[in-house]
Amino acid sequence: MIPLTVTLAAAALAGTAGGHFNPLHHSGAASPYFDAPSQFGISPSTPPQCVVDQAAYIVRHGSRYPEPGSFAGWQALFAKLQNASYTARGPLAFLPSWVPPVDDIPHEPLFLSSTGSTEAFSLGVQLRKRYRFTAGGDNFTVWAAGQQRVVDTATYFLQGYLSQGNYFNEPEKNRGTIVAMPDSVNYTFADSLTPSTGCPAYGSGDTSSKANDYRAAYQPAVARRLNQYLDGLNLDGSDIAVMQDLCGFQSEIDGDIRFCDIFGESEWKDYEYAHDLNYYYGSGPGNPFSATVGYPWIQAVTGLLLRGPDNRRNGDNFVPPPLVMSFTHDNDLPPVVSALGVWNSSLSPGIFPLSTNGPDARRTFRSSNLVSFRGYIALERLSCDSQAPPSEVEHAAGHVLPAPGTTASAEKYVRIRINNAVVPVPGCTTGPGESCPLKAFAAHVRERLAVAGDFVERCNLQDVMNATGTLDIFTKVPSEKAQSFTLVVPQPYAVTVP
Ligand SMILES: *[C@@H]1O[C@H](CO)[C@@H](O)[C@H](O)[C@H]1NC(C)=O
Ligand SMILES: *[C@@H]1O[C@H](CO)[C@@H](O)[C@H](O)[C@H]1NC(C)=O
Ligand SMILES: *[C@@H]1O[C@H](CO)[C@@H](O)[C@H](O)[C@H]1NC(C)=O
Ligand SMILES: *[C@@H]1O[C@H](CO)[C@@H](O)[C@H](O)[C@H]1NC(C)=O
Ligand SMILES: *[C@@H]1O[C@H](CO)[C@@H](O)[C@H](O)[C@H]1NC(C)=O
């Protein structure tokens, strides 16, 4: 474990490193994807004596248009700005000409934006280059919750990940499979990528209304400050809510960042902190059922990492690829943080649970660095030699030397990366790059069961038919309990050239 003083200093710098304050890195769930700053000073590069031989990701869908509910808020703001006669000055002089950035109302709200498609495609490219696991990528399988924007994210990911070269003449050599399943239903229980709706008790642990109280407390003063620039129109707290959301959303929809420029740094930090409180107390460690619903994914993935990339076990009908990709929604990521027990440092008294009075710069739980669009939690299995590669190497003709980490004596380790940044496993950082030895990681996961509890029992499902606490989708394709089904990407097509 790194010394406390180092942890705190690094945490205090997070977010301000580089000097220039960027509101798009402090917009919580409205932030387009960005690599999170290192909170612990650990390089995200794979250590030189290691290779990643297996990895599992759980990913939020890419940037999207607003949900219909928040779009109604944008339209109400537009109506208010257009309906009145007033003078707008200085930073607000653009308001009379602003129109909401949705130009196809029946088709855009809810769905991915072009930025979201790009984020998904570029993650595919990035992971193919980072791991170089599957040659060509024929029939590479990924998993997705069934809502259209999630399946679309998986689709664009696959198109970025698959080798592009053969699409035109041999598309069948470059096909991906998406294992999709019902999204946010209550009848697949833990066997789902949206398990919280399968836990009837979960809602009773959700105290995210603390975030609304926090918003109601800071927004009126922001409205008063901005009203100095208006004669004949009065902004209120709910207008501030919409205008701050529009920074992240409008930047990813059409690149317009005028709403980003009208708020000050402390106003952005209050906005971000309201998102933090929302996720911490809604789906994160502040909800006592959070770890319970996040645990089945961790348990399933840890089982795969223990077996290694190619092993089949009795009863399985499917061997997942070495890169296991799960696509889902924002609220399904904080439960995985809770189940892993990261970002909940009891070494920092007074920081957790998050205070409703205001942000503490030392907190590690930051929504912007987790549930940004296309945000992710990744577990990487590292295979490492005991020493860094030598600086001088003999080559015998006709013999390719094994790459670092690929010999039989290589040891296995695990690292957690959240939006690229390495987040140490609590109390387990003895491996290369502060990784955790695989067996110790598995022991940590077993210990976390004491916090997570049994899904069926904690969620009060003992008497419910078919209730399950196990996620089997990665080794059963299709899975009966998860009601999973497969989709082929790209769809078979034929091009007729005249
Ligand atoms: C528009 O203005 C009229 C008259 O001033 C007012 O009654 C109405 O509530 C306004 N509508 C909106 C959406 O602000
Ligand atoms: C591709 O993989 C899926 C499982 O993800 C399987 O159902 C399907 O049969 C495979 N297709 C081919 C052509 O191998
Ligand atoms: C699932 O939802 C339906 C409809 O609201 C309800 O009747 C049913 O009892 C729920 N099932 C569980 C296990 O909570
Ligand atoms: C977070 O830490 C607190 C204090 O150490 C502990 O009581 C709580 O159970 C932890 N939450 C989770 C989800 O691990
Ligand atoms: C339980 O699962 C079986 C088999 O999949 C299914 O036929 C049945 O409808 C399920 N029962 C309930 C209550 O969901």
TrEMBL record:
Disulfide bond residue pairs: C50-C384, C199-C459, C247-C260, C428-C436
One GO cellular component term: fungal-type cell wall
Record key words, sorted: Disulfide bond, Glycoprotein, Hydrolase, Signal
Domain of life: Eukaryota
Positions of the catalytic residues: H61, D330
UniProt GO MF annotations: acid phosphatase activity
Signal peptide boundaries: 1-18
Family annotation (InterPro entries): Acid_Pase_AS (IPR033379), His_Pase_clade-2 (IPR000560), His_PPase_superfam (IPR029033), Histidine_acid_Pase_euk (IPR016274)
Identification of the protein by name: Phosphoglycerate mutase-like protein
